Structure formats: C-alpha cells, structure tokens
Amino acid sequence: MAYGHVSKKNGVTYFLHARVTPTANGTRTMYFFAKEVKAADDITKALDAVPAGYQVVESEATGLPLLKKA
Fold it and tell me: What domain range includes position 13?
C-alpha cells in the first residue's frame, strides 16, 4: 500500500512516489506526491514509507506535502 499523507489545509490525500532518473554521474532519485497512485514502471513507483532521513512537511500556502531532509 502506498504511503498517503492527508493535507491539513484541504483534506486531500497525496501519495508518495519515487522516480529514478539517469544523470551524467549515475542516477538520481526524485521524490514527489500525487493525488492518485501511479502505475509502477521501470522509472516511477509508489513508496510504502517515507525514506530514511526524510520527513513530510506541508506548505503553509498551498497545503501540498513536501519531503524535507531531517
């Protein structure tokens, strides 16, 4: 089951995803939240938990969840 975060501002549930992208020095993992669980493929997948060393914070202006290094 994908990790979901309910926004305190608007009550919408957002699901955490990770996307691995190639770079000149190897690969980079980018994390993002989406309103729906996206289908898993070779590049993007839904995560079951917040990655170690990160915490979920909410933007005060928009209510969107963001990952922040702890």
Answer: 4-69
